[in-house]
């Protein structure tokens, strides 16, 4: 497991990106999906995931849906229209960030 | 193996024991725990339901569900303020601004008349009592709602309880403000005090009467499950 602190600031972007590809997801599904995609490298903790989801919902980037699944209720999150726009922005920011880090950490390879 | 309905109910009780009193927050946590417990039991079939539940709960860290409840409180508190603010703005646009201006002028003129300052204090005291009366009525209503449904939603609690109390606090401070006038009778002081009283009256009216009347609509809009749970 890598340094979780490094991922912390990117949690919202990760969630938005996942929802862009998967239409609608519930909290537990997101944690499992991330674990799978990163082969266990990144494990989103419950204590961080839900506050992030709630914040995105409050900011109007996510909408919620509730469905009865078996004998329990499940809350699904999906992107709103402004959420879709914001995802594009955040991903662009992320690319910029990765590029900058690359310049800083590995100057040789970044000579263009 | 899918959890039974009894086990789901037990999980609701479990979240309540861990200081999650709101049904909307409980529901999300119960589904999360249930999914995780099912996964844990699949990997370790020898674990009992309680053992699997405790393993899952540990993943939430030393503070348990507290961070999640707090973040939800913060977000819905913000939502409430947004609603309050948008209604408040109506009172500063035509036609309602006429009423706002009348309230302001009433207090301003009252202060400008050469009457005993105590009259103003008495008037403030009466307003404070009306406020306390309305707030306690709301708080009773909230208790009754909880008794009827046995479910408390976080936004519902903010609408019926938290805001009512903040209105009472504001009014008790406004009451102290009228003492301010004993020391200064300048135009600015009067305008300042009359503006604050006007704002406090608007705030109380909106938080104690307007928003509670819209409670059902706001709850349905915030919680997709609200409607069909109450029809079950």
Automatic annotation (TrEMBL), chain A:
Signal peptide: none annotated. Residues 15-88 form the Transcription regulator PadR N-terminal domain. InterPro entries: Metal_resp_DNA-bind_regulator, Tscrpt_reg_PadR_N, WH-like_DNA-bd_sf, WH_DNA-bd_sf. Pfam families: PadR. It comes from the Bacteria. This is PadR family transcriptional regulator. It comes from Polaribacter glomeratus. The lineage of its organism: Bacteria, Pseudomonadati, Bacteroidota, Flavobacteriia, Flavobacteriales.
UniProtKB/TrEMBL annotation, chain B:
Keywords: Membrane, Transmembrane, Transmembrane helix. The chain crosses the membrane at residues 91-111, 117-138, 158-181, 187-211. This is Uncharacterized protein. It comes from Polaribacter glomeratus.
